[in-house]
Design brief:
115 residues, alpha+beta, three-stranded mixed sheet, 6 strands
């Protein structure tokens, strides 16, 4: 449910960008969501639609890019990349589950389209 708070910030940012650049409508927003961020992509558009309904961002399309999770094995030093959630994560080289997450936990607004 923390998606609501995050998307409220996305909406505020998009509206600010539109205002700063003289835009009258936000048409699309590209988001990069880390696989391990805890944000559920399937909820993002519907929550955004509710938050933006009375704004110039109403009907804006959200384009979601998933940032893969990259782990470093603490046992052998190999890096393993996951592009989908898994029940457990393990090193592709040695099978260890002693991993450190290097990337794939972030969230970023990549682009705001305005007219």
């Amino acid at each position: 449910m923390h998606e609501l708070g995050i998307l409220n910030e996305v909406l505020d940012t998009a509206l600010r960008v539109a205002e700063q650049h003289g835009g009258s409508k936000v048409t699309k927003i590209t988001l990069r969501i880390g696989l391990m961020s805890g944000i559920v992509p399937r909820f993002v558009q519907s929550y955004f639609d509710v938050l933006s309904k009375d704004t110039i961002a109403k009907d804006a399309k959200l384009i979601i890019e998933i940032d893969p999770a990259v782990y470093l094995c603490c046992d052998c030093g190999a890096k393993t990349t996951y592009t989908e959630q898994a029940p457990h994560f393990e090193c592709e080289k040695c099978g260890s589950r002693t991993l450190r997450l290097l990337s794939g936990y972030g969230f970023q607004i990549v682009n705001v389209g305005i007219v």
